[in-house]
Task: structure prediction
Amino acid sequence: MHTQSIQHTIQRYRTLHTGRISVLPVVILMPHSACNCKCVMCDIWKGNNNLKQLSKADIETLLGTLKKFGTQQVVMSGGEAMLNPNFFALCEIFRNEGIKISLLSTGLLLKKNSGALLEWVNDIIVSLDGNEQIHDKIRNIPGAFRKLKEGIAHMHSLNPQYPITGRTVIHRLNFRIWASVIRSARDLGLKQISFLPADVSSQAFNREQIWDQSRQQEILLAREELPELKEVIQCLFRDFEPLFKSRFIAESPEKLEKIYTYYAAFYGMNPFPYKKCNAPWVSTVVEADGTIRPCFFHKPIGNIHETSLDAILNSPGAIDFRRNLDVSTNETCIQCVCYLNLPPGKNPA
Result:
C-alpha cells in the first residue's frame, strides 16, 4: 500500500470517529429530477412537470471539494440521469479527474446512447422488475422490457465485456415470479443481479408525504402472503445454488432471507433486520436542485446554491448529526432498505 493510500485510510478512520468529513469516497448525484418510467413503488415521475437539473457550472463548483476529499466514485442516480442534456459533459468532467462513474438507469436509453456510455461511464446498474409482462406492468411503460433488452444487447455487441448488472426491488407485485426475474437477468446478459425490499415508510423518491396505509399496502406484502414469500426464497436456494456460489446472485442466502424479515417486521413478527451502514460518513447525495443529504433517506443538510459542499458537509449541524447517529436505533435507519458499508481500508466497488 503506497503512502497516499495509507493516509486515505487514516483519514477515513478519523471521519468515522470525529464526525468531520476528511475524505469522501462516494458521491451520489441526481443530474435530472425526472424519470422516463412511472414505477408503482416510486413517486419520482410525479414531479416530471417540475424539472430541475444539475449544470456544468454546478459540477465544476463541486469538483474542488471532491478533489479535496479524494472522491473515487460518482454514482449517477435519478430518476433517469441521462435525461439531463449535458449528462455526458458532466461525466467528462469527472472522468478527466480520474473519478469512476457508475450509472443507475431504467435502461430505456441505453441503445441510443451506447457509444457515449462506453466512453464515459465505467459500469451500469439497470432496474429489472420481472419477466417482460411484469416488468412493463410495474414500470407502467409499454415496451420497457424490450427497450432494456435491446439496449443491453447493443452495448454488448460493441463491447462484450462491458459491465452491466441488475437490481430488483422485491415487493407484492413480483415476489411470486422471483425465479423468473433471475432467469430474465441471465437471458438479458447481465453480469449480476441483486435484490432489496421496497421502501414504503420514508419520504425518499419524491414523496411529498409518507405513504398512508392504503398506499403502502399496494406494495407491502400482506401478512398472509409472508409464508409464501418464505417458500419462494427457500426454492431460490434450492434451484439456483450455482448462481449463489458464482455470485451471479449478489446476495448470500442469509442476506436474501432478510427480505422476508423486513416485511415480517411490519407486522411485529420480528425486528427489522440490522444493517451495518456508514453511508453518512463515506458518501453524500446531491439532488437535482442542489439539495445535499447525508443519504437518500435522511433530511437535507444544505444546498450547494447557497453554501459550498465543503461547508455543508462539515457544518456544525452536519457534524453533530454524524456524531449522534446510531444506525441501530435511529428510526429512519432501522427501516431503511438500501445501505452502504464501506470500511476504511476498502475502496468503492
In short: The chain has a mean pLDDT of 92. The first helix runs from residue 3 to 18. The longest strand covers residues 164-170. Strands lie at 26-29, 73-76, 100-105, 123-127, 164-170, 193-197, 283-286, 291-293, 302-303.
